[in-house]
């Protein structure tokens, strides 16, 4: 009888998920199309599968007893409904919504309602045990335009500082004015497009995921995540410096080379080396402590 009751809870939750997906079919389809053709949001398509894997990976450690937590469900339900109303209204703080911001609000609403269903059908204990996989779904939400503008501007300015450092360390003659660098045979500017916000955002997501999968102590996870900010800035500055030095050494036509136009994945891969080295070192420390105990 007890097993039958638990099975009905899971079946009800699965029906709820199917119904919720059906209700949000149009915005979810628009989100998939938007992400597929966006440099900044292409990672969105992978997030649900990563979250599903994380829950599957925890399957042997999840609570075997389920209850209902209507209080938490109502809170998330209200947040989800509020986001949906804002999306339907088409304006936030008097400003018209862009398509990207509309998708951000509808996706946030979908995630809040999904988690509300989890609290209602499975209960607080089960949702606490799967807190990270469900929280990870927030990366399905496209970055709002205002947020991306602020981060791009900040990253552009920080990258210019890092590039200036690398130019001086390399001994390259350079005159700098703000984000503009005058080199011996070319003038380059660290533009908004050079901010590297997409790869930095993916690097941040990667650090969160890696920390959760491979580290146990919270302070080590926080250290890994905090390492991403200076790493991203140094990577962007190094990329600007490399492109500038190529222009100095081989001619200004290198500004149109593939390393400038399509070199982002290469520099992103290079930034993974110090990130994973720090992850290895932190994990090694945990193993040593565990063996000592």
Overview of the structural elements:
By secondary structure, this protein is mainly alpha-helical. It has helices at 2-23, 25-36, 47-57, 70-89, 99-121, 124-129, 131-136, 145-170, 197-214, 218-250, 258-261, 264-292; strands at 91-92, 95-96, 175-177, 180-183, 186-189. 72% of the residues lie in helices and 5% in strands. The two termini are 44 Å apart.
Q: Which runs of at least 5 residues are low in confidence (pLDDT < 50)?
A: none
Global shape: globular
What structural class is derived from the secondary structure elements? mainly alpha
Reading the helices and strands in chain order gives HHHHEEHHHHEEEHHHH
Number of helices: 12
| Distance separating the two termini | 44 Å
- Return Rg in Å: 23 Å
Question: Nutshell version of this structure?
Answer:
This protein has helices at residues 2-23, 25-36, 47-57, 70-89, 99-121, 124-129, 131-136, 145-170, 197-214, 218-250, 258-261, 264-292; strands at residues 91-92, 95-96, 175-177, 180-183, 186-189. The chain has 293 residues and is mainly alpha-helical.
Structural features:
5% strand, mainly alpha, two-stranded antiparallel sheet, 293 residues
Question: How would the blueprint of this fold be written?
Answer:
Blueprint (H helix, E strand, L loop, with lengths): L1 H22 L1 H12 L10 H11 L12 H20 L1 E2 L2 E2 L2 H23 L2 H6 L1 H6 L8 H26 L4 E3 L2 E4 L2 E4 L7 H18 L3 H33 L7 H4 L2 H29 L1
Antiparallel strand pairs: 1-2, 3-4, 4-5
Helix pairs in contact: 1-5, 2-5, 4-5, 8-10, 9-10, 9-12, 10-12
């Amino acid at each position: 009888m007890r097993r039958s009751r638990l099975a009905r809870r899971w079946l009800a939750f699965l029906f709820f998920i199917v119904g919720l997906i059906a209700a949000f079919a149009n915005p979810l389809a628009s989100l998939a199309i938007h992400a597929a053709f966006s440099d900044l949001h292409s990672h969105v398509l992978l997030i649900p599968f990563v979250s599903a894997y994380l829950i599957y990976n925890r399957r042997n450690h999840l609570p075997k007893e389920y209850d209902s937590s209507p209080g938490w469900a109502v809170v998330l339900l209200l947040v989800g409904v509020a986001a949906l109303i804002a999306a339907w209204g088409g304006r936030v703080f008097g400003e018209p919504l862009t398509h990207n911001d509309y998708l951000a609000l509808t996706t946030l609403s979908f995630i809040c309602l999904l988690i509300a269903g989890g609290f209602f059908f499975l209960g607080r204990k089960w949702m606490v045990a799967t807190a990270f996989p469900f929280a990870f779904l927030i990366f399905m939400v496209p970055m709002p335009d205002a947020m991306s503008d602020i981060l791009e501007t900040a990253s552009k300015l920080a990258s210019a500082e890092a590039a200036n450092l690398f130019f001086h360390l390399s001994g390259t003659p350079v005159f700098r004015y703000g984000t503009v660098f005058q080199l011996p045979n070319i003038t380059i500017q660290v533009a908004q497009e050079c901010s590297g916000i997409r790869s930095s955002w993916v690097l941040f997501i990667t650090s969160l995921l890696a920390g959760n999968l491979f580290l146990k102590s919270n302070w080590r996870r926080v250290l890994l995540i905090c390492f991403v900010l200076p790493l991203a800035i140094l990577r962007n500055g190094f990329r600007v410096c490399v492109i500038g030095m190529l222009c100095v050494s081989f001619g200004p036509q290198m500004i149109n080379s593939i390393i400038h136009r399509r070199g982002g994945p290469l520099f992103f891969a290079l930034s993974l080396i110090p990130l994973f080295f720090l992850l290895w070192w932190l994990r090694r420390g945990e193993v040593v402590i565990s063996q000592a105990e």
